[in-house]
Specification:
single chain; about 120 residues; mainly beta; seven-stranded mixed β-sheet; four-stranded antiparallel β-sheet; about 0% helix
Length: about 120
């Protein structure tokens, strides 16, 4: 059973940056593609970005393109989300997820709050 724990969230001003981490325990992430999702109050959880098991392929939702970067370090069993040029509309709880098949998440983290002030 893989456990995922996000960290790095917080309060930041618009235009600022944050780096989220997702550390895994209880198993290796090498088998999984990894993704970041977010959920704002009153809205559905949405996909932001994903990365394949080796890190050779990444993909981004339009809202994240050009501002967010996903990366992974399999030796550290950790996935990262670098977020730059943050906007108030980026305010949400951010979740990492491990999956083998697209659209079928095997494991979720508990989430970390990101709040961007204007």
């Amino acid at each position: 059973q893989v456990q995922l724990v996000e960290s790095g969230g917080g309060l930041v001003q618009a235009g600022g940056s944050l780096r989220l981490s997702c550390a895994a325990s209880g198993g290796t992430l090498r088998r999984f593609s990894m993704g970041w999702f977010r959920q704002a109050p009153g809205r559905e959880r949405e996909f932001i970005t994903g990365i394949n098991w080796s890190g050779s392929s990444t993909y981004y939702a339009d809202s994240a393109k050009g501002r967010f970067t996903i990366s992974r370090d399999n030796a550290k069993n950790t996935v990262y989300l670098q977020m730059n040029s943050l906007k108030p509309e980026d305010t949400a709880v951010y979740f990492c997820a491990a999956y083998i098949v697209s659209h079928t998440v095997n494991y979720w983290g508990q989430g970390t709050q990101v709040t961007v002030s204007s």
